[in-house]
């Protein structure tokens, strides 16, 4: 009887611990920055960022679920790549699109399909933004824009951590495309104000 009483707390603790559901460890993803690239020194007094894209926060939109939403990546681009070095005027980064959508794919329900791991979801991401240069009176003097889009599919057996990594890597590729186009257009259309 004494052995049973002594073992009861241990058995109870083991039972309670076994009942607890363990969540997957949170993964640490790297940051997406552009600070390693040379900044565009623009002859304006200030830089502003205006995000005109409003996520719906419901399906099929997934921006709010992502470790790094496309809008945040575009804002980071503006913070890292453009610097104000003048005395007047404003350069505004206007984010027009920063969407990420999830589409459920139709699966093969045949016998062969049931034996294979299938692509179950497609993720479509897009960014579109404009750098708008204004003088002190608010008159637009020049503008340069860029857009990029990427799509990727995921298998039905991916874990939450794997899905978030897929999203992150897709945003990284998306922003590399955006950076290339915006860099070229900034030089072409805002070159007169670059220092």
Number of helices: 4
Order of helices and strands: HEEHEEHEEH
CATH topology: Double Stranded RNA Binding Domain
CATH class: Alpha Beta
Identify the CATH architecture.
2-Layer Sandwich
Helix content: 25-40%
Poorly predicted regions are none
Provide keyphrases for this structure:
alpha/beta, Double Stranded RNA Binding Domain, 4-stranded mixed beta sheet
Write the layout of secondary structure elements.
Elements: H1 2-19, E1 40-42, E2 46-51, H2 70-81, E3 82-84, E4 90-104, H3 111-114, E5 119-134, E6 140-155, H4 160-189
Parallel strand pairs: 1-3, 2-4
Antiparallel strand pairs: 4-5, 5-6
Describe this structure in words.
The chain is of the alpha/beta class. It has a single domain (40-193), classed as 2-Layer Sandwich (Double Stranded RNA Binding Domain). Helix content is 33%, strand content 30%. It has a four-stranded mixed sheet with strand order 2-4-5-6, with helices on one face. Strand 5 (119-134) and strand 6 form a beta hairpin. The longest helix is centred in the C-terminal third of the chain and has 30 residues, at 160-189. The mean pLDDT is 90.
């Amino acid at each position: 009887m004494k052995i049973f009483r002594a073992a009861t707390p241990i058995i109870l603790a083991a039972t309670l611990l076994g009942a607890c559901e363990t969540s997957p460890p949170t993964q640490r993803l790297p940051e997406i920055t552009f600070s390693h690239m040379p900044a565009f020194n623009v002859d304006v007094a200030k830089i502003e960022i205006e995000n005109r894209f409003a996520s719906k926060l419901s399906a099929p939109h997934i921006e709010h679920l992502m470790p790094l939403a496309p809008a945040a990546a575009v804002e980071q681009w503006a913070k890292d790549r453009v610097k104000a070095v003048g005395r007047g005027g404003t350069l505004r980064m206007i984010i027009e699109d920063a969407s990420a959508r999830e589409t459920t794919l139709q699966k093969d329900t045949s016998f062969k399909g049931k034996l294979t791991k299938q692509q179950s979801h497609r993720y479509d991401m897009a960014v579109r933004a404009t750098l708008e240069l204004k003088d002190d009176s608010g008159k637009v003097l020049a503008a340069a824009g860029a857009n990029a889009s990427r799509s990727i599919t995921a298998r039905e057996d991916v874990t939450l951590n794997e899905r978030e990594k897929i999203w992150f890597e897709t945003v990284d590729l998306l922003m590399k495309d955006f950076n290339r186009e915006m860099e070229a257009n900034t030089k072409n259309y805002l070159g007169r104000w670059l220092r």
